[in-house]
Write a structure and sequence with these properties.
- The complex is a heterodimer.
- Chain A is α/β, with parallel strands linked by helices.
- In chain A, 41% of the residues lie in helices and 17% in strands.
- In chain A, the strands form three sheets. A six-stranded mixed β-sheet of chain A has the order 6-7-8-4-9-10, sandwiched between helices.
- In chain A, a hairpin with a 2-residue loop joins strand 9 and strand 10 (216-222).
- The longest helix of chain A is centred in the last third of the chain and has 18 residues, at 388-405.
- Chain A is globular, with a radius of gyration of 22 Å.
- By secondary structure, chain B is an alpha+beta fold.
- In chain B, helix 7 crosses helix 8 and helix 10 (318-346) packs antiparallel against helix 11 (349-364).
- The chains are: A alpha/beta, B alpha+beta.
- The A-B interface holds A 14, 23, 25, 46, 48, 50-51, 54, 57-61, 74, 77-78, 80-81, 83, 85, 87, 89, 91-93, 95-96, 100, 104-105, 107-110, 149, 152, 156 and B 2-3, 5-7, 10, 13-14, 17-18, 82-94, 445-447, 449-451.
Chain lengths: 411, 451
């Protein structure tokens, strides 16, 4: 198999003026990112994440070793035309408007005018900046600039997307949208390599991660495998009656297990998103970015590749057809303002996509009803495919369901 | 090409929207008309036009040079400093294409600004005669001696070697050689004397010059000359009888087929004067003779200094000459754009601008600088003349291709000069500078080091 990104003992030493080695920014890095994988490069500040990405793209010359992107050199225009790159901050031409910015990048790819125009409108729509498309980028807030930065990385419909700390400077809604977008891009067959030190973000979207420290890989592997506590089981149920809980306790006790029963806590992220969504529904005006959940239709889908198959294999039971709908509703609720067209667009997407593990897990959480949420952790399991990652989404789901039911106060 | 053009248009937008160019635009739009109104020169129409064109062309050229340096340096260094280059260079564009785009953008901007301002200067020049109260004579003078492009026929130095040699032998035989002089010094002195004698005319004497291949386009031709006089007459005025026509007649007195020009004038000494004569005196074979007669009431010897006499004739229109001189400015700007891009590949904005300004000023005075090295070359200057002098020779000679040098005396700026300038300044020097910039930029690590 050809890796989307592969490095061979990639090393970057920053030397001082006399040529003496000062800092090993990246030290013998061997990295393999498979096609159609969301790969997270984690690490504290100064651990060499950004330096690695810059070396991949030819912005820095490696001291030793080499890197292959899509089987080629990262500085080769042929390879570049298949790559989208978002640097750690959105470095944009302040004097260009949002639309001109995208047009400029589109022209760098040599896209014909018609295609460019179509994609620019789709992308502006997608990142929610259509209303301010003619304003100079220099007047944008950091988050808005970030969105334009993301849009420029997508204008060529890249096969490989390299995102350096994609969520810095974004509000929680923006962060959420980027995460959703990353997942949906992965569904469409893109390979995504992202660096971050925001662990929650990485956990939500990445298939595999590598943790860097001092320029060396400390550990790498599948998020699921790294985080799954194989000595524990978790069951999530609707608000079942106390007697049923008692029965389960007995069952668990019979296996010499211990069992904790609690109601799951909501995540601050989803709470925040709900609050803002409520405000948006009351049509309070904002000069900032508008949240949408659209995705540019030009972002093509690739045939499912090996890692998609992996996901399918690891996915639980195949889900019934109507189930993706609540997912759509959830996202729509988070974004608020224009839910109708989004919903139809998204459901189209969700219907036609291959089913990766993450979605399947979300769907399974759906039956949880708002009134009596009870969460058990027992050894004997029926939902043994659940991973740590689905846990968070799990809770979201339930809470979103509640808010739609109109009694979010219960939480 | 699409990609280069994308970078180029972005550069132009940057220059215009970041208000760098706008400052220069406003300065020029205010200064040019102000110059047009305020310049008077020597109070004649011709003087007024000469002063205006010379000041406005120099001002425009200087401001556009500064603008070119600043824009070319800024557009590259700001991309690197503000890191927009991260997103640009990772797109399918090669580094040389990026720099070519920058260069193209600056050059296109220069072409636009240069055309606009040259048009303004040209229009002011052409329309000034209509709005200024000028006598008929002044108008004719301005048309003949300024709003035209005249080719010049110059007099070569007369070869006096044989003559000097003979004179030296004669002196030696007579044993009249000055005692303290070497042979070389004596010969130099004799040569000077002999050449002076060829250019000098005592009272009643005639000096004549011949010119080949004279093909005038207009009805009038001009003799441009300067008198030196020994001793100086009290009013510094010199009378001269000027002849122009078929050399057969002037030299051998043969009956001419074409008319002969013959007039007496009074002119001031030690300044350039012009005498106009009809072009019809030029014979069909194009061999023209000019003669000067030192006539009474002069009672001094008249000497023409070296380069003190030339025959001018209209060879092209003012407009064509003006366009060619604007081309010279454009070549200068192209060189500076390349220089700015080279500097910005390895220097930060302020240092790069300073670097370019120093080279620009050196290039503007290169003739003077090189000459001054020649004076030094006897002693310690040897070191300089073998190192710095060659470095300066590598720079383009802006002063050698200064357009006002041609436009003000209405001298023909021939295409050959323009092509020569294009060849040296653009095709060789600017190209080398740009290639050097490309090499540095290709090897450069674009990203800043952050750990």
């Amino acid at each position: 198999m050809q890796y989307a990104v592969e490095t061979f003992s990639l090393t970057k030493i920053f030397s001082d003026w006399w040529g003496r080695a000062k800092v090993y920014a990246v030290d013998n890095l061997d990295l393999q990112v498979r096609p159609n994988e969301v790969f997270g490069l984690l690490g504290p500040n100064g651990s060499g994440k950004t330096t690695t990405l810059k070396m991949l793209l030819g912005l820095l010359h490696p001291t030793k070793g080499k890197a292959l992107l899509l089987g080629g050199d990262g500085a080769d225009p042929k390879i570049n035309s298949r790559i989208g790159f978002l640097p750690e901050e959105s470095y944009l031409y302040r004097y260009l408007s949002a639309r001109e910015t995208l047009d400029f990048y589109g022209r760098l790819f040599g896209l014909p005018a018609k295609v460019r125009k179509m994609r620019i409108e789709a992308l502006l729509d997608m990142v929610g900046l259509k209303a301010v498309a003619n304003r100079a980028v220099g007047t944008f807030s950091k988050g808005m600039a970030r969105r334009i930065g993301l849009a420029q990385a997508l204008i060529n419909d890249p096969d490989l997307l390299i995102l350096d700390e994609p969520t810095t400077g974004l509000d929680p809604i923006g962060t959420r949208q980027i995460k959703d977008l990353i997942l949906r891009l992965a569904e469409r067959g893109k390979t995504i390599l992202l660096s971050s030190h925001l662990l929650a973000d990485v956990e939500d979207v990445c298939d595999r991660i590598a943790i860097l420290y001092g320029g060396r890989i400390q550990t790498q592997g599948r998020v699921k495998e790294l985080l799954q506590q194989t000595n524990k089981r978790q069951i999530t149920t609707d608000a079942i009656s106390d007697s049923t809980v008692e029965k389960i306790r007995q069952l668990v006790a019979a296996e010499d297990g211990e069992c904790v029963v609690t109601s799951p806590m909501d995540k601050l992220e989803s709470f925040f998103i709900r609050t803002v969504a409520a405000a948006q529904q009351q049509a309070q005006s904002t000069s900032g970015a508008v949240s949408t959940t659209k995705i540019g239709d030009f972002l093509t889908r690739k045939e499912p590749m090996e890692s998609i198959l992996d996901k399918l294999v690891s996915a639980p039971v195949s889900q019934p057809e109507p189930e993706p709908a609540p997912t759509t509703e959830k996202v729509a609720a988070a974004s608020g303002s224009e839910s109708r067209p989004d919903e139809s667009l998204l459901s189209k997407l969700t219907h036609s996509r291959p089913e990766p593990a993450a979605r399947g897990q979300e769907a399974q959480t759906e039956p949880v009803k708002p009134s009596a949420a009870e969460h058990g952790q027992i050894k004997k399991n029926i939902l043994d495919q659940l991973t740590g990652r689905s846990d968070a989404q799990d809770k979201d789901k339930k809470e979103t369901g509640k808010s739609q039911a109109g009694d979010s106060g219960d939480a | 090409m699409h990609r280069i053009w994308a970078v180029a248009t972005n550069t132009i937008k940057q220059a215009l929207r970041m208000k760098i160019a706008v400052v220069f635009l406003i300065m020029l739009f205010v200064l040019l008309p102000a110059l047009g109104i305020s310049t008077t020169g020597d109070e004649t129409l011709k003087g007024r036009l000469q002063t205006f064109v010379s000041y406005s062309l120099s001002l425009m050229s200087f401001l556009l040079c500064l603008l070119t340096i600043i824009v070319s340096v800024y557009s590259v260094t700001s991309d690197i400093d503000q890191r927009q280059i991260y997103t640009v260079i990772t797109k399918p564009i090669r580094r040389f294409q990026f720099l070519m785009g920058k260069l193209l953008g600056v050059v296109v901007l220069d072409v636009i600004l240069l055309s606009v301002f040259s048009a303004v200067i040209y229009a002011v020049t052409i329309y000034t005669p209509r709005f200024v109260k000028a006598s008929e004579q002044e108008l004719v003078e301005a048309n003949n001696e300024f709003l035209t492009a005249r080719a010049a026929l110059t007099v070569p130095q007369v070869d006096v070697t044989a003559e000097v040699r003979a004179r030296y032998e004669e002196l030696r035989k007579l044993d009249q050689l000055p005692p303290d002089y070497t042979q070389e010094q004596v010969i130099t002195e004799l040569t000077k004397q002999a050449q002076l004698a060829k250019r000098a005319a005592g009272v009643g004497e005639v000096l004549s010059w011949e010119f080949d291949n004279v093909r005038p386009l207009a009805k009038s031709m001009f003799i441009r000359f300067k008198y030196d006089v020994f001793p100086n007459p009290p009013d510094s005025q010199v009378y001269g009888r000027w002849f122009a026509g078929d050399y057969q007649y002037i030299k051998y007195g043969q009956q001419p087929k074409t008319p002969i020009f013959d007039e007496v004038y009074k002119h001031a000494a030690r300044t350039f004067n012009e005498v106009q004569f009809p072009a019809e005196v030029v014979p069909e074979n194009g061999r023209l003779a000019i003669a000067f007669m030192n006539v009474p009431p002069n009672d001094t010897t008249v000497v023409f200094p070296p380069d003190g006499l030339e025959v001018l004739y209209k060879a092209d229109s003012f407009a064509a000459n003006f366009i060619r001189s604007v081309l010279l400015i454009l070549f200068r700007l192209i060189f500076l754009a390349c220089l700015g891009i080279l500097a910005s590949t390895f220097l930060s904005f302020p240092v790069a601008v300073l670097f370019c300004l120093v080279l620009f000023l050196t290039a503007s005075f290169s003739g003077f600088v090189i000459e001054s090295f020649d004076y030094l070359s006897q002693n310690i200057g040897m070191i300089y003349s073998y190192s710095l002098k060659w470095a300066i020779r590598l720079l383009p000679q802006f002063d050698q291709f200064n357009p006002t040098k041609f436009i003000v005396p209405a001298r023909l700026l021939s295409w050959s000069v323009v092509v020569k300038c294009a060849l040296f300044m653009v095709c060789i020097k600017a190209f080398l500078v740009f290639v050097l910039g490309l090499l540095i930029f290709s090897c450069k690590e674009i990203a800043r080091i952050t750990v």
